[in-house]
């Protein structure tokens, strides 16, 4: 055969269409993208289907790269990867979610993905029925100020721990950041009632005062720069009485960390605030630890507070940075002498108790010898 015939045959061979088998990686990536989901397989239109792509098995070593990894992403580029039908359905369910538990008929993987897509800023009353561990882990991560504790509990704590801690953090943030005049409108009391079975510990780092001080009647409107104690009101903490499972309560009625220009109403509290707090405390029969810090307490406020606390079986009472001074030593001494012997920890650090006040405090401490 001549060289001319060989060249001719070679040219003809190159022009013929060739049937080639795609790489297994390409098949696997296409299967992951276009494979029918469990929801699709349940559709009535699928009952007469004769080709079942989901029955395809891959015998490779399992080292195929995912389809997403084949797309190069930069800051200016858009990922051009078709979404799976199940992902589209989940995104729709997340966008239309208006409270309640997770949508039914979701498998465990889809429940995790639903929890990873849902916003952590949704109102607590809407998300309190969710059981997704993924969602509550995200809530704890976003709301917690101590990320070290998050990593300490990671992979060790049961599912209920994440939901419980997430609810506690969201409830505390709600009480801290909401304007007191809108507590009733925003349904704070209803939220507390619904969250009560999950809340064992509550840490309120700073309670917001009322936004303005009301002027005296029959006077023109005016602004008070350094309001007296009786006008430095906060939202009524009597709503905490619904937290019947509460065992530990930490509260700041003043300012722990200044982020705004000084105003007296931020660093002070009224006698009415203490009375409202006391009304809630006397109904918290399971309370074991109570902390009130960075709150200006004079003798009259301290006396009212301790009268409400006396019937409780407290194990720890902390009153640091409360500016306890003249007249407070005798009140604390009488309180300690009448208190149940369950108290094991008393913290009065960073106060103004001088020698005469400590002399009046000591008789109460002698009971615990």
> Biggest β-sheet: count, sense, barrel?
5 strands, parallel
- Cα-based radius of gyration, to the nearest Å: 32 Å
Could you say how many structural domains there are in total? Answer: 2
Beta-strand percentage?
5-15%
| Low-confidence runs | 61-73
Determine the N-to-C terminus distance.
117 Å
Features:
LRR_dom_sf, Leu-rich_rpt, 40% helix, five-stranded parallel beta sheet, Leucine-rich repeat, LRR (right-handed beta-alpha superhelix), 15 helices, 369 residues, mainly alpha
Question: How would you concisely characterize the structure shown here?
Answer:
This protein is mostly helical. The chain is 40% helix and 5% strand. Mean pLDDT is 79; it is low at 61-73.
């Amino acid at each position: 055969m001549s060289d001319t015939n060989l060249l001719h045959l070679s040219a003809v061979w190159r022009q013929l269409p060739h049937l080639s088998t795609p790489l297994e990686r390409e098949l696997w990536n296409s299967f992951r993208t276009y494979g029918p989901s469990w929801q699709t397989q349940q559709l009535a239109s699928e009952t007469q289907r004769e080709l079942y792509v989901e029955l395809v098995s891959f015998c490779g070593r399992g080292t195929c790269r995912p389809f997403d990894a084949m797309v190069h992403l930069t800051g200016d580029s858009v990922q051009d990867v078709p979404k799976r039908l199940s992902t589209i359905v989940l995104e729709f369910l997340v966008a239309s979610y208006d409270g309640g538990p997770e949508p039914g008929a979701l498998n465990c993987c889809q429940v995790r993905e639903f929890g990873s897509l849902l916003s952590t800023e949704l109102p607590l009353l809407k998300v309190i029925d969710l059981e997704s561990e993924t969602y509550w882990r995200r809530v704890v991560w976003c709301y917690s100020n101590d990320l070290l504790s998050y990593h300490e509990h990671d992979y060790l704590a049961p599912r209920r721990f994440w939901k419980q801690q997430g609810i506690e953090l969201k409830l505390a943030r709600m009480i801290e950041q909401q304007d007191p005049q809108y507590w009733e409108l925003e349904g704070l009391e209803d939220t507390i009632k619904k969250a009560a079975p999950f809340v064992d510990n509550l840490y309120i780092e700073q309670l917001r005062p009322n936004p303005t001080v009301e002027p005296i009647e029959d006077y023109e409107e005016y602004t008070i720069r350094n309001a007296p104690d009786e006008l430095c009101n906060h939202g009524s903490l009597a709503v905490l009485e619904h937290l019947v499972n509460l065992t530990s309560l930490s509260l700041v009625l003043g300012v722990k960390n200044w982020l705004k220009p000084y105003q007296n109403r931020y660093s002070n509290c009224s006698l009415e605030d203490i009375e409202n707090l006391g009304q809630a405390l006397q109904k918290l029969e399971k309370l074991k630890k109570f902390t009130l810090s960075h709150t200006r307490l004079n003798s009259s406020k301290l006396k009212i507070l301790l009268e409400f606390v006396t019937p409780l079986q407290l194990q720890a009472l902390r009153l640091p940075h409360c500016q306890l001074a003249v007249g407070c030593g005798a009140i604390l001494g009488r309180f300690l002498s009448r208190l149940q012997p369950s108290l094991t920890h008393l913290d009065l650090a960073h106060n103004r108790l001088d020698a005469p006040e400590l002399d009046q405090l000591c008789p109460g401490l002698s009971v615990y010898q």
